[in-house]
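Supplementary Methods S3. Input chains for the assembly prediction are listed below.
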Amino acid sequence: MMKSPSLASKLQHKQGSKTRVKNNIESKRSKYGVIFALPWIIGLCAFYFYPLLSSMYYSFTNYNISGFSQFVGLQNYTQLFKDPMFWTGISNTFFYALMQLPLSVMLGVSIALLLNMKIKGQGIFRTLFFIPSLVPAVAVAILFQWLLEAQFGLVNYLLDLVGIAGPGWLGDPTWAKPSIVMMSLWIIGNTFLIYLAGLQDISQEYYDAAEVDGANPLRKIWHITLPLLTPVIFFNVVMGLINALQEFTLPYTLTSGTGSPADSLMFYSMYLYNNAFLYMRMGYASAMAWVLFILIMLITLIILKTSKRWVFYQGDN
Amino acid sequence: MKHKKSKRVLTYIFISAAGILFALPFFWMVSTALKPNVQLFSYPPVLIPNPIEWEHFFNAITMIPFFTYFKNSLIYSSLSTLGVVVSCPIVAYSLARLKWKGRDTLFVITLAVMMIPFPVTMVPLFLLFSQLGLVGGLLPLILPLWFGMPFFIFLMRQFFKQLPNSLEDAARMDGCSEFGIFFRIMLPICKPAILTIALFQFMFSWNDFLGPLIYLSDPSKYTLQIGLQQFQQTESTAWGPLMAASVLIAVPIIALYFFVQKAFVKGISLGGVKG
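Predicted structure tokens for the full assembly:
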């Protein structure tokens, strides 16, 4: 190793050796870059690339837990499209996502708007709305099962007070999915925190300008807040969609994997899980996983494409 | 002026109504857990239990091997948290501040793998770990996290990106090694960011259901989530003990949140003073 004083003097005299020394340092640093990233490179290969590729391979085989495996081509996929439960899973999951997403955006934005105003006890309210999202999903499912109990549940009692005969909720095929939507809205904490952060990023200048023009509060929200919040809404919609299409824990805890009543809670991921670990049809489950993956990628791509039309960034024209 | 005042009142009405709605399930959970059995199914419902009985909590921890599950959950959560804390910062540092060929490609791949749904990798991972003879324990869930977690690597990279370059330039002038720069300079600065990913991971693992469901079959290895789900399956109308168990499972994570939140704020202010 060279000592630094001699290094410095050499640098002063020869331009050529300066670049060489610099290259030396650069290459040394680049070596460390690879060394530091090595755990992740190994992890990527072992726990992401390998499973991804083998999952694709399994989806073309009739692989099961006994280890017996045969290449069957597209058979899993063609069988899948003829499987009524596959379609039940698809329709249940999309029904849930299409109901849950708009509601979570509306609720999340409304709460964030309310909390963003200068009110007393802001911290307490913020904690209040956030705490439910810390409750484990299994506990949420059990709690709502009790709340929504047809006969003794608190919700039907409260509805009764205002003269509404409450439905059977989780026992009723029509109301089972809305019940799960309710649970997912209760644990919306993370989402509304992101909205709140987005609201606090909006520059006060816009509001001042609107004030001068005499805009009322509702017009301010509609013409300033919401358009400038669209990047955050966009982010939450994409993430929410990816999560909603994979919803598993709530329906599984509520039905122990059966999807009852009348398959109304047979979500896609749950049917996939059942195929893989209950019926031990690993190949079939892998095909289901790839269909899900492709669907998620397609939908994300579509949202991304349309986003240019409805997402506005501050400072854009 | 009058208009402003009515607007404020309206705001308070809305936010209080929403607040009550959000607090109600939680309140009901605690209230049911503390209620004597005779008040569980009374009509109209008893809102505030009278007298308060701790019996359901006693039942919850004796009807299921609560402390075994608790211990397993604690092992899973702390070892996976330790894993991401050890693996993610150094990888993120390399992606953010060291120049090397392939670095940007690796970053793009890291972003891309965040999109992969767990169901896609779950079957091959299960088969892989079953070939290694690790199925039945928590190791298949913990081990991958010791090699990095894409979301946390992304978060930490963003954190490292915003630090001034002068930091490591000064250290390099003083002849500090690359390892030294990372461990002695970078790591102490990013304490708040590390605390954030640690809190996230602890919460993920504590609340994780699908992972343990796939790998665990022996009840002595169950985590709290699996244990609670099994408890619910066998005693589906024992609302008292079920609510008490739910409270017991939620409380540690809520307590941790409050505890870390304080430390988190402190960490940021300390970092600011020193940096």
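Confidence is low (pLDDT under 50) at residues 1-5 of chain A. Chain A touches chain B through 78 residues (CB under 8 Å).
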